[in-house]
Design goal:
Helix content: 40-55%
Strand content: 5-15%
Distance between the termini: 89 Å
Radius of gyration: 26 Å
Order of helices and strands: HHHHHEHHEEHEEE
């Protein structure tokens, strides 16, 4: 028996294809959203706490939506209509799932190398903004829109030691100390042959390193934080 080629049959095929694609796409996006909350700077159950919480949020939202539809059956028409519209769009033969980051590629924006170390100036600026005065890798990664693993690799590439620090309001976790960052910045400034002992320029975030002759430097972070770093 030949398949009908009239318009209603083609519309039904498009809706069926679109519904299948839409369900798979939403499941993939939900799974990706949950996995991205995993903490790479932690281990064990603490690392998996983020995905577990997001999974619980999705399950709770689904249960609430189901209860709402059972209490207000008329909303099924709204939900069915919204799904039909979305499935019709997704069912187009040329439809492709758009992942995060593809919009920037389509607009011709330059995409940074994800494996390249984050510049030391950016790391110091992030520390001055989120540090109390120390900062966890996760907090720096969130401020820099990067992963904790990349922040850790960048810090090690610049010679900044990574250790367990206590961040105010967040407890203890892997991160960096303001004094360690100040020592690295001061060492970098001491490597140039400038002997005028002029203070370093202050960044917009308030991070400034003032060399003290050949013996050390003073790291100013904001208006009220001051650390003295001695070089031996």
């Amino acid at each position: 028996m030949k398949r009908l080629s009239w318009a209603p049959a083609r519309a039904a095929d498009r809706l069926t294809t679109g519904s299948t694609r839409l369900a798979a796409h939403l499941a993939t996006r939900a799974s990706t959203w949950c996995r991205r909350s995993r903490r790479t700077d932690l281990e064990g159950w603490r690392a998996a706490l983020g995905p577990a919480i997001r999974t619980a949020v999705l399950a709770g939202a689904g249960y609430a939506a189901l209860r709402l539809l059972r209490a207000r059956p008329v909303l099924m028409w709204v939900a069915a209509g919204a799904w039909a519209v979305a499935a019709w769009r997704v069912g187009h033969p040329d439809w492709q799932p758009q992942e995060m980051g593809e919009q920037a590629d389509e607009e011709g924006e330059e995409v940074a190398d994800p494996d390249a170390p984050i510049p030391l100036t950016d790391l110091a600026d992030a520390l001055s903004r989120v540090g109390t005065p120390h900062a966890h890798l996760a907090a720096l990664a969130a401020h820099l829109d990067a992963t904790p693993a990349r922040v850790r690799a960048s810090l090690r590439a610049h010679g900044v030691p990574v250790e367990t620090v206590r961040m105010r309001g967040a407890g203890a976790s892997t991160g960096i100390k303001a004094t360690a960052m100040g020592a690295v910045v001061a060492a970098g400034q001491a490597s140039n042959n400038n002997t005028n002992n002029t203070p370093a320029a202050t960044s917009e975030s308030g991070l400034r390193v003032d060399p003290i002759g050949q013996c050390g430097a003073v790291l100013h972070q904001g208006a009220g934080t001051r650390h003295t770093v001695e070089r031996r």
